[in-house]
Amino acid sequence: MQIRAEKVTQNIPGCESFTVTDLWDRNSTDGLVKSRPPRTLSQNPSFDSLTDTLVTQPANAQETARNNIIKEMVETERKYVQDLEIMQKYSTALSQANLMDQDTIHLLFPGLNKLLNFQRKFLIRLESTAELPWQEQRWGQHFLESEDEFIVYEPYCANYTNATELMLANEQNLVPLNHLINVKGELPGLLIKPIQRICKYPLLLDSLIKACSPATYPHLDELKQGSDAAKHDWKGHHLENFGELLLDDIFVVTKSDIDREYHVFLFEKIILCCKEAIAQPAKGAKGVAKNGSILKKQLAPPPLALPGGVGTPQKNTPLLLKGRIFLGNVTQAVPVPARASPSKFFYSLAISG
Q: How far is the C-alpha of 102 from the C-alpha of 94, rounded, in Å?
């Protein structure tokens, strides 16, 4: 059974033919893409009526700001999903062209299919919400209910640096597909899209909060909770999920022949590389320290204690997350020959993943 009748295709312009079986796979949203033609906000009844309202009844500044934020949220979400679909098609083309092995493609786009499936469904929720009257639009609810699902970003964000290095290392192998995505001019910008989007959500929600009034919006507290969820929980970094802390100490971590000293925490499921937070300068002073790690508050108070009471004495200085290694991604850990430094010898362990 397939949607092929001329009457149907004429009434659904741009719809790609699909079979009913395309919709059977609950783990894939590819069938939904074929059966649901894309819409623009000009086709959205909510924004059509909104435009009419603005023409006949000038809105106040707060309402205008709110409408602009919602429009931006939905339109940028739709564009983001389109970018993910482009990346998925590119990944499939790489596989079919045999330009690199499957493991390398997976490392270049880690968890992309799951990420795209989630974002397609999330987009539909945002579009549906935008069609409701303002008092019924529960934007915070989506982020609260999807909080656990945002864990699909974990492998992508954790491996983003490796993916960019892999792209550069395989640049010549990717040139044959420049007609799809230019490896120098376009691919770097696409690879960073998920990182940018996950950081954009809190900004959009905070802007929406400022444009809301408790007197006219009954879901303001829920919106604030959704904003908090988008800020703190998208990486899935909760200490209780790391397993037992096995070891922590000061180690030198070498990457690209550059040595950096980190406070390393070895858990059962993850290795965290942290540095002490630099105190913020007084207001108006130059050189504001970089901030924003979600572990800053979680790792500092109280100090972490090692099993059996062994290890480096802990201080109360807040720590900023600088790197992480998910042990589920580690494929090999082997000792390498000791090498000398100006002050000591390093006995190194090479970790591959």
A: 9
- Assess contact for 296 and 254: CB atoms under 8 A: no
What's the CA gap between 84 and 36, in Å, rounded? 17
Burial (Cβ within 10 Å: 0-12, 13-18, ≥19) of residue 185: exposed
Tell me which amino acid residue 283 is.
K
DSSP string, 62-73: HHHHHHHHHHHH
Collapsing DSSP to helix, strand or coil, 139 comes out as helix
Contact 351, 325 (CB under 8 A): yes
Q: b vs e for 97-111, b when ≥16 Cβ sit within 10 Å of the residue's Cβ? A: eebbeeeebbbbbbb
What's the Cα-to-Cα distance from 216 to each of 50, 220, 259, 331, rounded to whole Å?
17, 9, 56, 55
At residue 140, the pLDDT reads: 95
Instruction: Give residue for tokens 């564009």.
Output: 79
Instruction: Tell the residue number behind the tokens 């290095």, with chain if given.
Output: 165
For residue 16, what pLDDT band results from cuts at 50, 70 and 90?
low
Element (H, E) at 335: strand 332-340
Both tokens of 184, joined, read 């120098």
| CA distance linking residue 94 with residue 101, whole number of Å | 9
Q: Which two tokens stand for residue 120?
A: 């397609």
pLDDT tens sequence across 57-78? 445 888 999 999 999 999 999 9
State both tokens at 178: 């420049």
Q: What is the mean pLDDT of the chain?
A: 76
Contact 144, 225 (CB under 8 A): yes
